[in-house]
Amino acid sequence: CSNSLQSHGKEFRRCSGCNVAPYCSKNCQSVAWNSEQFPHKNICKILQNIVAVAGTELLFPQSVCEHASYPYETRNLVVEKWQKGDVSLDILMEIEEWSTFRSSYVDSRYLRTECLPGFDDYDAKLDELSKGNSSLKRTRFFRFRFDVYSYVICVNF
């Protein structure tokens, strides 16, 4: 659906099976579960299996990610862990296609929206953080429409 965190007004829930796919409502989850192109009932099982192989450590090697600019420096390590966990390229490609599909029907107006203040001195903190760094202009602080699909990385093999 085209709901965003801002338009929906509250945090999205996640699928209780895979804990990866976000949904704004039970109806949205139901529609995705039975989708023609990528029914979540199939994708969910794949995601559960990928996570079960070695949890998030399989997908995001934490000790490396803390010191590297994710994802480029860690991509090879992530792929290596996937391969060690017997996660086939076919399965990864299906997950990548699903991820792309989920993003493709979003109205481009909702892809990035300015952050709403989360606390009283929000504007002052943004100004302080961006001061002296011309690449961090105030208008460039955005929140993405979806939170990142935690376990899905689109990797070019």
Automatic annotation (TrEMBL):
Protein name as annotated: MYND-type domain-containing protein
Domain MYND-type: 1-44
Coiled-coil boundaries: none
SUPFAM superfamilies the record matches: HIT/MYND zinc finger-like (SSF144232)
Domain of life assignment: Eukaryota
A UniProt-annotated Pfam family: zf-MYND
Alphabetical UniProt keywords: Metal-binding, Zinc, Zinc-finger
InterPro entries: Znf_MYND (IPR002893)
GO molecular function terms noted in the UniProt entry: zinc ion binding
PROSITE patterns listed in its UniProt record: ZF_MYND_2
